[in-house]
Amino acid sequence: MNLIEIADVADPRLDPYRDLKSEDVRRRGELFIAEGRLVVQRLLQSRYQTVSVLAEAKRLDWVRDLVRPETPVLVVPPTLIREVSGFNFHRGLLACGRREPFLPAQTLLPPGDRDQNGEVDAGEGSGWRRGDFVPDPSRIALAAISLNDQENLGSLIRTSAAFGIETFVVNRQTVDPLCRRVLRVSMGTALRMRFIDVDDTLGWLIDNERRGGWFTIATTLAPGAIPLSHVTRHPAYACRPKLLLMGNEGDGLPADVVSACTAAAVIPMAVGVDSLNVSVAGAIAIYELVRSGT
User: Fold this and answer.
1) What is the spatial order of strands in the sheet that 263-266 belongs to?
2) What are the φ/ψ torsions at residue 88 (nearest 5 degrees)?
3) Residues 27 and 130 reside in one and the same domain
4) What is the tens place of the pLDDT at every residue in 115-146?
5) Is this prediction's pTM over 0.85?
6) Residue 279 maps to which CATH number?
7) Domain that holds residue 166
8) 94: which of 54, 186, 246, 248 fits an S-S bond (Cβ 3.0–4.6 Å)?
């Protein structure tokens, strides 16, 4: 094991772990931080590169069984790890991972029209690659559009993973799904997700519908939305993969985004109750979609 003992709080090898409490949750930097035993374990076992591990001496026996021989393990006293991280940290274990680029949303679209030579015209700069779109009607993905709360996003990711969802779409206004708190709330399941980056949600939805790609379901309280359980009656439901869209905690999905989806659905609630927490609503909606496919 590549052990490096550090006693100087100014050591530059500690830089990725500094002031974690003031983390910019909107910025998708090159590195991200895993906190606590379970999340660190899932990082070490994931496809992501572990840049380093920061551990108290009492954690070394556990780390030894998981870490690659070449990965630096920075060993620090408890007082130093708290001073560096910027909060009263008791778990004694952090790790730094290197991010992989999120895939562009265009990779989820089916190929466009074929030209006279039979070649696919996916549009200039679309990023489409053969095999990225899988027209499997049983496939379900989730999109988080402008979610602000890290705990809500982490809960949605954890619920998605529990039901076998592996594709997760996020727009640029959603908090970073690999920020420390989201990773912790998701119990590290975010490290198993295939994240898709959408910079133009409305444009992508319009293009998707034109190509007959995903069956997109907008969750909304807007008038005209049908009960979620009735979505299966749509004639296209049975033959297309499903993408469930969850909106901002306060404002929901924009009206033009709702209109661009294949269907707009609402979860029926008792009179006098007008909404659910987005992570709770997402869990109910995911379960309904999974149940309807059985």
Assistant:
1) 103-104, 194-198, 167-171, 140-144, 242-246, 215-219, 263-266, 226-227
2) -75, 85
3) no
4) 333 334 444 443 344 446 777 899 999 999 99
5) yes
6) 3.40.1280.10
7) 103-292
8) 54
